[in-house]
Amino acid sequence: MSSLLTQQGSDVRSYLGSLERSRWSRTEAVRPRVFSLAGRDWDLLDQVFAPPHHASTAVALELLGITAPSPVTLTGTLLEIGSGTGVIAVSAALRHCRTVVAADINPHAVENTALNAERHGVAHRVRSLHSDLFSGLGPDERFDTVVWSSNYVLAPTDFEYRAVHERAYVDPGYAAHRRYLAEARNWTTEGGRVLLHFSSRGDLAALGAIASATGCRLRLLKSTSVLEGADLIVHQLFEVVAG
Ligand SMILES: C[S@@+](CC[C@H](N)C(=O)[O-])C[C@H]1O[C@@H](n2cnc3c(N)ncnc32)[C@H](O)[C@@H]1O
């Protein structure tokens, strides 16, 4: 067992562990219909990544400067890939973003984001879109910021999802990360930024190799450590820059 594992008590990068977290999070008894985060109430639908079960949504709000000071201030137009319940997309619209496109491959997440945009009175400025990364966008759409709080745990290349909820947790062979790193910069305005929220549950060496292979590099903007159960997890906000 590596010293990291000894320190942390469990293999935080295990995809099987992440699938177990997904299974547990789908258990009806533990899922609230409504939860509170960042001073607001939010609807939670079945099959959608549940922010009250994991630290990552609250951490993303901090890293993105929505609930804490950050080198990043989201303004202008935002594309959020993987919006889930819509907490980040809606919170960004309630702060400084003029318009937000909130995309998710999970149709339940698309419905959930629309519900929360409605709940908080920003449905006219948050467009909830069913999309595999950028596939649902119009060819001329461009954004000041593109961000993905990703499914950063690496699963084997031949792993097949058994539930759409698992897409929030693991990425087989980092195929979706590879497409994100290769394509996201095509969707920014001139001077726009591509951001990625990753964590020590992911394989940063593998991600770095993919970045090099796709002609970009990862610039660390901010990181923070959070105790998740017995594990100290480092969450990182990267900017994807040409490279
Ligand atoms: C870790 S969850 C984050 C959800 C939400 N942003 C939050 O912080 O609560 C990752 C999200 O990415 C979505 N996702 C995974 N692969 C995707 C893809 N290829 N295209 C769009 N969304 C994807 C998942 O469905 C999930 O909602």
TrEMBL record:
GO terms for biological process: methylation. Pfam families: PrmA. GO terms for molecular function: methyltransferase activity. The lineage of its organism: Bacteria, Bacillati, Actinomycetota, Actinomycetes, Kitasatosporales. One of its GO terms (cellular component) is ribosome. Keywords: Methyltransferase, Ribonucleoprotein, Ribosomal protein, S-adenosyl-L-methionine, Transferase. Gene3D superfamilies: Vaccinia Virus protein VP39. SUPFAM superfamilies: S-adenosyl-L-methionine-dependent methyltransferases. PANTHER family: METHYLTRANSFERASE N6AMT1. The keyword Transferase applies. The keyword Transmembrane does not apply. It comes from the Bacteria. This is 50S ribosomal protein L11 methyltransferase.
